[in-house]
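REVIEWER CHECKLIST
Item 1: Sequence provided? yes
Item 2: Single chain? yes
Item 3: Sequence as submitted:
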Amino acid sequence: VVGAGLRRKESFNSDPVGTVLGVNQGMGRPVSEPKLPPVLTGPHAPVNIAEFHALAKAKLTPMVYGYFSSGADDQQTLQDNEEGYRRLRFRPRVLIDVSNADMMTEVLGVKISFPLVVAPTAMQRMAHPEGELATARAVAKAGTVMGLSSWSTTALEDVESEAPGSPKWFQLYVYKDREVTKQLVTRAEAAGYKAIALTVDTPRLGRREADIKNQFNLPPHLTMGNFASLKQANMENQGGSGLASYVASLIDRSLSWKDIKWLKSITKMPILAKGVVTAEDAVLAVENGCAGIIVSNHGARQLDGVISTIDALEEVVNAVQGKVPVFVDSGVRRGTDIVKALALGAKACLIGRPVVWGLSVAGEQGVSYVLDLLKSEFELAMALCGCVKVSDINRSMVIRDAFAPYDVRRTLPPSKA
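Item 4: Structure as written out by the authors:
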């Protein structure tokens, strides 16, 4: 069994076993602080996500780093996902008592410690031997939701056993073999996963030049953990990107909105449409019964030149008119980014690469460090904006930079001059 011997029973609401940066994990109980590895202590310890990224780059092999870090084609959208947040400016309120901040929020009926969810990121054992197991433990201690990829290098049941009872979403690719897809969904529901995050933007894999150059393939000691002895467990090395060949041969290009009905017929889990960036598709997602939308461009790994997710967010939020929650991923690198996204209507943000950088650098403790770092930044940003609770964050608190490389002046508040 994948992950056997690495399991450690710990419920979602049990006392956490560690903290970093002085921010309590879990539900705010007092915790003891375990000894951190040298890379996370002293004057050279990382103090932001960019420094974690640099440490991870130095540690990972070029093939693995290229897989996790790269975007499609010229990587225009990869850069724009982060730049989009920098084009937003705060309008903070002052002289507000922020001595007792409450960062908790609720997503799909589950209370989480702050509005950040860990995005499903594939093949995490390439980054660290414990991979998804280490991530699951850290996310449970942080008191939030973990997304698990269909392409996890650990079986979904083992991930649940590692952090039993902690909320998890299962990301789903629809395979040509619908029976394989159905089995994945059935297993996820039986294991207690809370939602299906259906990837809707990958009928084909984007052209990721780093993977082509590096002839990316899953390292021989690893498999796709959710497929056991099935052919879907392995990639064939045929030159170029092994993942591109895998997707071309196995993933269903015919997936359409009518398949939401099929998916709803085989599960009671709510379905989130992951990969929507337009109002038109947001409306269709609601009409076809999706319980939520994740505004995502797949970390800029699919269509290069697509709009950044933070720029697409408000269009989607306005289109759904509050009928379903809207989440956003891609480009979040600071706690201030979370505030900006919530001001534009997101229920919560998702992060992928920052978690992988923390995992690469220091395993479970690295992931915990990253999550606590972003939580600490978010708490500070809330206070400096004059917000006591998450619901205080509102649209009036951000404006778009008038010097952004497109016409945004119509989104600014009317001048009173």
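Item 5: Key structural point noted by reviewer: The first strand starts at residue 88 and ends at 90.
Item 6: Recommendation: ____
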